[in-house]
Amino acid sequence: MTWLVIGTDAVLGVFALMFLALWFKHRLRALLAGAGVVVAYAVSEVVKLVVQEERPCRTAPSLAPCPEPGDWSFPSNHSVIAGASAMAIWALHRTFGWVAVICAAAAAASRVIVGVHYVHDVLAGLALGALVSWGIAVLLEKRQQQRDEADAPTVVMQRLR
Known about the structure:
Order of helices and strands: HHHHH
Number of domains: 1
Number of helices: 5
Number of strands: 0
Largest sheet: none
Low-confidence stretches: none
């Protein structure tokens, strides 16, 4: 089962490679989408401090080493990053987006299988990450539309009398 533990972190590497590939086409949008993942992670850290739920590996055997006490379970940071990455990649490229969604689901499931998170931890993490990333994508799209409108040429026509 070690491959499950390694696979969860490897999926995060797959997301990084997808962002890198998308960088060549989308430049600033890819960078800002990646920044949305960082914002989602920061939000999840705040939620962890408020909720402070113990991990299942504290009371039951797990396949992965149990994180240090004080590293709370809810929400799953891996799932937050996976959900945010999948949503950001989806917004940039639909084909990569499908791959990212499957990878995100696999990463979240592996956290439950290895025994370091509850199911509700990973579901909340996926949802939180996706919502934060989606919100940032919407804001970026609105900003781009405003720029496009500002760059449009203005035509002034003489008034007919």
